[in-house]
Amino acid sequence: MLTRLHADHAPAVLAFELANRAYFAAAVGDRGDEFFERYADRHRALLAEQEAGVCVFYLLTAEDGPVLGRFNLYDLQDGVAALGYRVAQHVAGRGVATAAVQELCRLAAARHGLRALRAAAADENAASRKVLVKAGFVPTGPAGPTDVGGKPGTWYRRDLTPHPPERV
Asked: Pairing between strand 67-77 and 80-87?
């Protein structure tokens, strides 16, 4: 189940990012030491963006508490948002990301009133491309290096089934 990001999540998210740093860096580039050293500031900034309504951040957590993945909707505008996600290395390849992306698509329509989602994946990231396709996204064109961590990639899109917004 996806949980909306809140202030109390900062230590768990930082632990998730640190535990998976090398794994993520291989796919999308390293965030750099400053990201980790100043994570508390970054977390507060994310919460401010979420409060302003331009982004929505979700976590997937294990029953015993550790973060298994981050699933983000950003640049919400005119009923469309960009999707970004990352899952812990130890759960990769088990359908966790696909299920969470499918759930986020449902939430995007039902809770946030979105009509479509876009996502970019590096061409060399076969796992991420597979998640998107399994979750109903279709390729729409090339993604530039600034879209996917300095690597060539592809943009994908999924139109969402309209739902009346849920109350949060």
From this structure: antiparallel
pLDDT one-digit tens code per residue, 98-119: 999 999 999 999 999 999 999 9
Supply the DSSP symbol for 167. P
Tokens of 46: 């994310």
For residues 128 and 132, give the distance between their C-alpha atoms in angstroms, rounded to a whole number: 6
Task: Report d(CA 10, CA 13) in Å as an integer.
Answer: 5
Angle at 85 between CA 84 and CA 87, to 5 degrees: 170
> 88: number of CA atoms within 13 Å, CB side?
18
pTM recorded for the entire structure: 0.90
Between strands 80-87 and 116-122, the pairing is: parallel
User: Is residue 29 classed as helix, strand or coil in its secondary structure?
Assistant: coil
What confidence tens digit (pLDDT) does each residue in 24-61 have? Answer: 877 776 687 788 889 999 999 999 999 999 999 999 99
Query: How far is residue 85's CA from residue 72's CA, in Å, rounded to a whole number?
Result: 6
Q: How far apart are CA 142 and CA 161, in angstroms?
A: 25
Residue 56, Ramachandran bin (φ over 0: left; ψ between -120 and 50: alpha; else beta): beta
